[in-house]
């Protein structure tokens, strides 16, 4: 459905009486509604900057998807779609995406930058009154709205008068009548503009959330970045485009880690089940990625061998077998993407951004709240590292694997803070990245050794020489020893760099 919207908004105090319209209009039927509107935009608020509004509204007579497009005369063309028109609760219907693309043209980005995410959520208690002419025809509607905006948590009251069958001049007369009673036209052009505050300016100027502002703002920006990657790369993941699975998998890890590291600021009854679903999806991403990594690793190791140590069709078997594993794992991943469980996960991720379940000190200053939580993550890494230095053999390898997981949590937490906290947090993130990359070599060696043994058995059953597989296993063990020693040293350096 398409219609032209013409309205005026007015500021009014929380306890002020509803103004009278004198002899201008009669008052008809009144209705009460509870509305919930989730407004969506790109992370850089491209729609807002082009005066385009996209929302998903629940409640009221016109619930559904609403897309408002600007017109030269100052009115807006409103395009509607049913609530269930999209592939999920918050994934935008294709018809509305096409409308937006038609308006923005070449400015409409693709991939991650074009993902439409919840930018604000407004809960409105509305008293809606019909305004009538002497014959009882509805010329306009007066809406008395009390609005609560998320994620800011601010509340205000406003009046809205929207034409139904009346002419534009009627709105001008309403403005005059209300002005006589001290009710002025609202400064903010829309509820969304008021909810966003100075965020459009901050985004336009490339500013991150302030470290002196709420911790929730810093974390929400980070969570949104990860969700944008997960959604924005889905088409590339399906097509098995280079690096798409890897980057999506990293985003799932960052997201899960943030929900754990900063769990004191979140309602865990909401986020813990979501973390488990993210873990499930990450595991599906891990299978094709592991085959991809192992193929690159083992073929590179073969390239480094002297010719006399390359015996039999090792390269062919490695490439063929790992290609087979990758193809099977990618096919299984596509099935996951097509599943109801994945669609529910996507809805859960978008709901997380729309109504983030903040608690505790989330609204307090980021500079006071977030660094102690990063320090706690570093303490957990230090405990595992200290325990690893006291033992040898398989037990040490297990504890270093745990150290790596804890180090990743610190690294991702520092990355979350870096845009707002600056170079110090970025340097700490780099220090912990060195730890995770080096200790990650231990895990890669363990996986590589296991897969080489499987390939060796298959080669033996086929009557092929197995000498080279043993050489490769020896190489993996040597690299593991180097990574073990290097990792222990790098953890110590990273701990020294982390403010606690």
Automatic annotation (TrEMBL):
<dbReference type="InterPro" id="IPR038186">
    <property type="entry name" value="CHAD_dom_sf"/>
</dbReference>
<dbReference type="Pfam" id="PF05235">
    <property type="entry name" value="CHAD"/>
</dbReference>
<dbReference type="InterPro" id="IPR023577">
    <property type="entry name" value="CYTH_domain"/>
</dbReference>
<feature type="domain" description="CYTH">
    <location>
        <begin position="3"/>
        <end position="202"/>
    </location>
</feature>
<protein>
    <submittedName>
        <fullName>CHAD domain-containing protein</fullName>
    </submittedName>
</protein>
<feature type="domain" description="CHAD">
    <location>
        <begin position="212"/>
        <end position="500"/>
    </location>
</feature>
<dbReference type="InterPro" id="IPR007899">
    <property type="entry name" value="CHAD_dom"/>
</dbReference>
<dbReference type="InterPro" id="IPR033469">
    <property type="entry name" value="CYTH-like_dom_sf"/>
</dbReference>
<dbReference type="Pfam" id="PF01928">
    <property type="entry name" value="CYTH"/>
</dbReference>
């Amino acid at each position: 459905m398409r219609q032209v919207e013409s309205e005026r908004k007015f500021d009014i105090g929380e306890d002020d009486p509803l103004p009278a319209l004198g002899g201008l209009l009669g008052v008809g039927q009144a209705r009460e509604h509870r509305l919930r509107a989730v407004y969506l935009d790109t992370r850089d608020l491209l729609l807002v900057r082009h005066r385009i509004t996209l929302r998903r509204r629940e409640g009221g007579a016109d619930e559904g998807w609403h897309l408002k497009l600007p017109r030269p005369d100052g009115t807006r063309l409103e395009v509607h779609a049913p609530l269930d028109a999209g592939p999920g609760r918050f994934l935008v219907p294709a018809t509305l995406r096409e409308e937006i693309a038609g308006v923005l043209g070449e400015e409409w980005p693709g991939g991650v930058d074009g993902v439409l995410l919840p930018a604000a959520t407004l809960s409105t208690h509305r008293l809606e009154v019909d305004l009538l002419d002497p014959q009882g025809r509805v010329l306009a509607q007066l809406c008395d709205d009390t609005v609560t905006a998320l994620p800011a948590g601010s509340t205000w009251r406003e009046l809205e008068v929207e034409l139904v069958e009346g002419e534009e001049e009627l709105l001008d007369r309403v403005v005059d009548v209300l002005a006589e009673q001290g009710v002025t036209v609202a400064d903010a052009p829309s509820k969304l503009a008021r909810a966003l505050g100075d965020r459009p300016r901050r985004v336009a100027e490339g500013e991150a959330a302030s470290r002196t502002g709420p911790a929730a703002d810093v974390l929400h920006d980070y969570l949104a970045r990860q969700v944008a990657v997960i959604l924005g790369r889905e088409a590339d993941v399906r097509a098995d485009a280079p690096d798409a699975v890897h980057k999506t998998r990293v985003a799932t890890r960052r997201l899960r880690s943030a929900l754990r590291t900063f769990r004191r600021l979140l309602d865990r009854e909401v986020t813990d089940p979501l973390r488990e679903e993210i873990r499930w999806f990450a595991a599906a991403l891990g299978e094709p990625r592991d085959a991809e990594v192992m193929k690159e690793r083992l073929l590179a190791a073969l390239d480094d061998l002297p010719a006399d140590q390359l015996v039999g069709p090792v390269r062919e078997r490695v490439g063929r077998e790992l290609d087979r594993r990758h193809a099977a794992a990618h096919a299984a991943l596509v099935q996951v993407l097509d599943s109801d469980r994945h669609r529910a996960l996507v809805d859960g991720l978008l709901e997380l951004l729309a109504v983030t379940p903040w608690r505790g000190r989330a609204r307090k200053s980021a500079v006071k709240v977030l660094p102690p939580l990063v320090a706690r993550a570093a303490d957990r890494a230090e405990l595992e590292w200290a325990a690893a230095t006291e033992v040898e053999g398989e037990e040490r390898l297990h504890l270093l694997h745990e150290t790596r997981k804890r180090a990743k949590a610190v690294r991702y937490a520092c990355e979350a803070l870096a845009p707002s906290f600056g170079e110090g947090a970025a340097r700490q993130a780099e220090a912990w990245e060195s730890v995770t990359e080096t200790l990650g070599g231990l895990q890669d060696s363990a996986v590589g050794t296991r897969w080489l043994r499987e390939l060796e058995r298959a080669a033996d059953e086929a009557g092929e020489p197995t000498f080279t597989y043993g050489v490769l296993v020896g190489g993996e063990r040597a690299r593991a020893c180097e990574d073990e020693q290097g990792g222990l040293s790098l953890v110590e350096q990273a701990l020294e760099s982390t403010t606690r």
